[in-house]
Structures are given as C-alpha cells and as structure tokens.
Design a protein that fits this description.
Blueprint lengths: L1 H25 L3 E9 L8 H23 L4 H12 L22 E7 L4 E8 L5 H11 L4 E3 H10 L13 H13 L17 H11 L8 E2 L2 E6 L5 E7 L20 E3 L5 E6 L1 H6 L2 H12 L3 H15 L4 E6 L5 E5 L3 E8 L5 E5 L4
Parallel strand pairs: 3-4
Antiparallel strand pairs: 1-5, 1-6, 1-12, 2-3, 2-7, 6-7, 8-9, 9-10, 10-11, 12-13
Helix pairs in contact: 2-3, 6-7, 9-10
The chain binds aspartic acid (ASP).
Aspartic acid binds next to strand 9.
Length: 361
C-alpha cells in the first residue's frame, strides 16, 4: 500500500515537472521594439548619431528582455523597454525628447494593452509625465476606464503620486528649431519660446545642435513614436506605444498611439501590434486591430497581414509609417513603407537584431 502511494506520488511529481518544463518550452519569450519611421536614410544620417541611436535601441530591448528572462510578464517588459526609449534619444519622439505642438507645448500620448485579459489603459495630451507609458498602465490597473485625457490625466498622475516634471523639462533646442522651421515654411505664427527654456543660442549653434544629435533633419518627414510588443513565458502577449504625436499639431490633437485598435493592440487570440506613422491614417484604418483580424479570421501569416495593411490599405490612402507585430508563438515581424524605421528584435536564446534603414534585414 505504502509502496503504491510512493509510486503514485513519484508519478505525479514527474508529470508536474514534465508539464511545467513543457510549458516553458512552448513559450520561449520574444520581444520587438520600434522608435519611429520616416525619411531616415544613410545619405543624410551621421555616423555618430547612428551609433548612439542603435545603442539606445539595444539598451531598450535588453531591458525588456531581462524582465522576460526573469519570468516577468509581457506587460512589465513592455513598460520597462518603453521607459528606456521615453527620453532615450533625440531621434525619438517620446518622453523628454517629444516634439512641440503649434503653440510650442508638449502633449504626450501613450497606451498599453494586456493580450491575456484585453485590459488596456491610455492617456492623451498629458503635459507633466516623463513616462506616460507608466501613467497609461496606471489607468489600466487603477481605474475602471481605458482612456483619460488632458487635465484629467495630469490630475490623475498627481493623485497617484506619479513622477511629475515641469513642462520646461521637455524643452530642447533641436526640436524647437525643427518646429520653428516647420511653422515658417507653413506661414504660421511662431509661438513664444516656452517659459523656463534656457536662453536662445545664436543661430549657428542652434543648427549645430539639431544636426549633430538627430538622425533626421528638420523638414524631413519623421515619426519618432516608440513602441514594444512582447510575449512572456506564460504565453501572454502585450503591446505598448508612447509618443509626443506629430510636430506642429493643433493643441489637443490626439493621434493613433493611445487609441486601442489603431496604434496599439494586443490579444492572445491573434497578435500584438504597435504602430508609428501619420496617426490620422492609422486611426481611419484601425491598423493594429486590422492586422490582428486578418490573422485571427482569415488565418493570414503575420508578415502577410502586416504587409497587406501597410503596403496596400495604408498606401491606398497615401498614408505612411510602419508597425511591429507578434503572434502568440513568438513570431515577430515588421513592415513599413518609409526609407527607415528604428527597430530591434530578440528571442529567448537568440541574438539582438538592431536595424534602422530599409535595406537592413
Ligand atoms: N503615430 C504618431 C501620431 O500620429 C506619430 C509617430 O508615429 O511618430 O501621433
């Protein structure tokens, strides 16, 4: 009797260990990031900022990968990697380096979505958060809502004791120059230099700052939103996106990034997507959900679904930009119709791939 019991217990232990090892094998983690698309070409980029931007992408993806490798959730990994990119590089448009709106102010948007539960949180037009992705996560986890905007979102940040900064924290000369040049080209009024900004440099110095730190030049089309999709060892997908939106936008304008289904989407039933590009097109086409629907209902391979939406549907509307996307088996793809997109991917046990231009694999 005792022998039988020991044999049974041993068998159960073996089965439990075998099935948990199997579960781990079924879900090696996977992570993919982007930091915007646009006119990013070898001809106009300088080697110094190319190297620095690649280093920031590598740091961001490794930060997310570490979370996944410790057994952390995809939501944790998405937030951690995006926080590195929020303010990580002057070539990006998120957090500290966000672009200015037409009134010379920074208004930030972000979203995060949990593919296991379909819970989501977003913020739009926030002005005091250095890490809007963290605020979006708080909306997901600490409120009954999905999207909170403007003063309400700034107030929520304060109420939960989140990290707050003065609007002058977001000032930088390179992006100010880019705004002024755009508004001049468009014949629009130039807003006063923001309160708290350091005194203006002479013009030659301003030009030096913008050309030495950014991988794109004022006047070029550039979308520097940052985003992450990830799969954790439990097989759960998540997606997140954070942005300053489009330069010179109307105050109060909200893009696709914080709109669930447009710039950000995740479901374990289909895929996770984060987008970058002209948000107005991405919203009209609900691009993120569209890609996942093609996978879910048409059984399309992920790459084909992403390419169909970017190279057919988006191009038919004359929109531009790109996406990163991932299925629950950890397969990750990117698709974009611009000359470059800042991007990187990494799978458990693999090597990091970092790429910028469209001639890189
Ligand atoms: N999609 C963003 C927006 O329209 C911009 C970007 O991707 O950089 O707000």
């Amino acid at each position: 009797m005792k022998k039988n019991f020991i044999a049974l217990a041993g068998g159960l232990l073996f089965l439990t260990l075998a099935s948990s090892a199997g579960a781990q094998q079924r879900h090696p983690w996977s992570i993919e990031i982007h930091a915007g698309a646009g006119d990013i070409s070898r001809a106009t980029s300088n080697p110094q900022s190319d190297t620095a931007t690649r280093a920031t992408l590598k740091k961001a993806i490794e930060t997310g990968a570490k979370v996944l490798d410790r057994g952390g959730s995809s939501v944790d990994a998405v937030e951690a990697a995006i926080r590195v990119m929020e303010g990580g590089s002057p070539s990006f448009d998120a957090g500290k380096w966000a672009v200015f709106n037409a009134e010379g102010k920074v208004e930030l948007d972000a979203a995060i979505m949990d593919g296991a539960t379909l819970k989501a949180g977003s913020v739009a037009a926030v002005t005091r958060s250095p890490h809007p992705i963290t605020l979006a996560r708080a909306v997901m986890e600490r409120t009954p809502h999905v999207l909170i905007v403007g003063p309400g979102a700034d107030k929520f940040l304060h109420q939960i004791g989140g990290e707050e900064v003065e609007p002058s924290y977001f000032f930088n000369q390179g992006k100010w120059n880019a705004l002024v040049e755009q508004l001049k080209r468009e014949g629009k009024p130039i807003p006063p230099r923001p309160a708290g900004a350091p005194p203006a440099q002479d013009q030659a110095d301003d030009k030096r700052i913008s050309s030495s730190t950014m991988l794109w030049m004022p006047g070029q089309r550039h979308y520097g939103t940052v985003g992450v999709v990830a799969l954790d060892r439990k097989g759960n997908l998540a997606a997140g996106t954070s942005t300053g939106g489009s330069q010179g936008k109307m105050p109060g304008r909200v893009g696709d990034s914080p709109i669930i289904g447009a710039g950000t989407y995740a479901s374990n039933e289909s895929c996770a997507v984060s987008a970058t590009g002209v948000g107005e097109y991405f919203m009209r086409l609900t691009i993120a959900r569209e890609i996942c629907s093609l996978v879910q209902y048409k059984g399309m391979p992920l790459q084909q679904a992403a390419d169909t939406v970017i190279h057919k549907e988006l191009e038919q509307l004359h929109g531009e930009g790109g996406v990163i996307a991932m299925t629950p088996d950890g397969n990750s793809v990117w698709s974009f119709n611009t000359s470059g997109m800042f991007r990187a991917r990494l799978k458990e046990g693999g090597q990091v791939t970092v790429a910028i231009y469209n001639d890189e694999p």
